[in-house]
Automatic annotation (TrEMBL):
<feature type="domain" description="Thioredoxin">
    <location>
        <begin position="234"/>
        <end position="373"/>
    </location>
</feature>
<dbReference type="Pfam" id="PF14289">
    <property type="entry name" value="DUF4369"/>
</dbReference>
<dbReference type="InterPro" id="IPR036249">
    <property type="entry name" value="Thioredoxin-like_sf"/>
</dbReference>
<dbReference type="InterPro" id="IPR025380">
    <property type="entry name" value="DUF4369"/>
</dbReference>
<dbReference type="InterPro" id="IPR017937">
    <property type="entry name" value="Thioredoxin_CS"/>
</dbReference>
<protein>
    <submittedName>
        <fullName>Thiol, disulfide interchange protein</fullName>
    </submittedName>
</protein>
<dbReference type="GO" id="GO:0017004">
    <property type="term" value="P:cytochrome complex assembly"/>
</dbReference>
<keyword id="KW-1015">Disulfide bond</keyword>
<keyword id="KW-0676">Redox-active center</keyword>
<dbReference type="InterPro" id="IPR000866">
    <property type="entry name" value="AhpC/TSA"/>
</dbReference>
<dbReference type="GO" id="GO:0030313">
    <property type="term" value="C:cell envelope"/>
</dbReference>
<dbReference type="InterPro" id="IPR013766">
    <property type="entry name" value="Thioredoxin_domain"/>
</dbReference>
<dbReference type="Pfam" id="PF00578">
    <property type="entry name" value="AhpC-TSA"/>
</dbReference>
<keyword id="KW-0201">Cytochrome c-type biogenesis</keyword>
<dbReference type="GO" id="GO:0016491">
    <property type="term" value="F:oxidoreductase activity"/>
</dbReference>
<keyword id="KW-0413">Isomerase</keyword>
<dbReference type="InterPro" id="IPR050553">
    <property type="entry name" value="Thioredoxin_ResA/DsbE_sf"/>
</dbReference>
Length: 373
């Protein structure tokens, strides 16, 4: 599951179980409509390398299977069920409550689980997530059709509706986390929002600080905390890490030497389509606000042997400001210092080099500059 960050495996001693006569004694009671007798169902957890690891096995008999409770756990844990017929899996949260699971043999991901509040919240979230993803695909198609037909206004209108729908979805999900600060599913949701790039790490840290109680001691939450902690150096309010690099002319340029009243650190590359599409907007902002104290330093993630392409893109896009690059692509040490894993990525600094905003694009950049300058 994409929203699960790697977790440290906990030692469990659980033996294989098969069907017994008294269904009421089973911790997990499963039904498997249409699955033939003798089919094995595997219970998995994630090991320390984020790979599923089988910890128990059940056998389907008369379309039913069972798992007994293993060692009592201190905290709820993420589990998966799989079958020997394929790599598909269903996800659920195992805690202290007995569960009932119904497998969908055509798509284990579409299976269901009842019996605990954690799983109810998880599956409600997944339903909302699927609905949002469907709408996103529809917006993407509608906007593409509008722009291809030359209807710029319609395309812009679709984009606005899309962004409004995204904000509504995020607010709904935020409320789930804030209403359930002591549940493991909240950690999982925060991880999903980060991995799907629906929120930045500053918002993720804000949500993470809502978590409380035993959930903070779980492996998955500790893994999420470890992942987010490395971004505190570039969080809003932090002093921007200093760096230097070579300009297109071969001179060494340092961040501290280019700070204005407001400074934009812009990570981009000549090969990056979204970066090149955003450049005209940044050019307009620079021309409007440079005389008022707005500076820009662009850090190119162009590849080795792409110096000519880097310089040509600067000239073609009229990026008349400071530039540096080591031509090291994703291995650029400045990108690593700023935890940049996708571009365009921007950091807006005040005159003291403190980060005051991130990833402002389009009109949002102009609005912020108007506010500050």
């Amino acid at each position: 599951m994409r929203f699960l960050l790697p977790i440290v495996a906990l030692l469990l001693i659980i033996s294989c179980k098969t069907e017994t006569s008294n269904d009421n004694t089973h911790f997990i009671e499963g039904t498997a409509p249409g699955v033939y007798n003798g089919m094995r169902v595997y219970m998995n957890k994630l090991n320390s390398t984020n790979n599923p690891m089988i910890i128990d096995t059940a056998v389907v008999m008369n379309e039913k299977f069972y798992f007994e409770q293993g060692e009592k756990k201190d905290f709820a844990e993420v589990r998966f069920l799989s079958m020997e017929t394929g790599n598909d899996r269903m996800i659920f949260i195992e805690g202290d409550e007995p569960l009932r699971i119904t497998l969908n043999q055509d798509s284990l991901w579409a299976s269901s689980v009842t019996g605990s509040e954690e799983n109810r919240i998880l599956y409600d979230f997944r339903a909302d997530q699927a609905t949002y993803q469907k709408r996103t695909n529809e917006f993407k198609t509608a906007r593409g059709n509008a722009y291809r037909s030359g209807d710029q206004q319609k395309g812009d209108d679709v984009t606005k509706t899309w962004m409004d729908a995204e904000e509504a979805y995020k607010n709904e999900v935020f409320n789930i986390v804030k209403s359930n600060p002591n549940k493991l599913v909240s950690s999982m949701i925060i991880g999903d929002l980060v991995n799907s790039k629906l929120i930045d790490t500053d918002k993720a840290l804000e949500l993470f600080n809502v978590l409380e109680g035993d959930v903070k001691e779980t492996a998955i939450t500790k893994s999420l905390e470890s992942y987010l902690t490395k971004f505190t150096t570039t969080a809003i309010g932090a002093k921007a890490p200093l760096f230097e690099g070579k300009t297109p002319d071969g001179d060494v340029l340092k961040l501290e030497n280019v700070l204005g009243k407001v400074t934009l650190i812009d990570f981009w590359a000549s090969w990056c389509g979204p970066c090149r599409r955003e450049n005209p907007n940044v050019v307009r902002a620079y021309k409007e606000y440079h005389d008022k104290g707005f500076n820009i330093i662009s850090v190119s993630l162009d590849r080795q042997n792409a110096e000519a392409a880097w310089k040509a893109a600067i000239e073609k896009d009229e990026m008349d400001w400071y530039h540096i690059s080591r031509l090291m692509h994703w291995q650029d040490p400045i990108a690593k210092l700023y935890n940049v894993s996708s571009i365009p990525a921007t950091f807006l600094l005040d005159e003291n080099g403190v980060i005051i905003a991130k990833d402002l694009r389009g009109q949002a950049l102009h609005n912020k500059l108007a506010e500050l300058l």
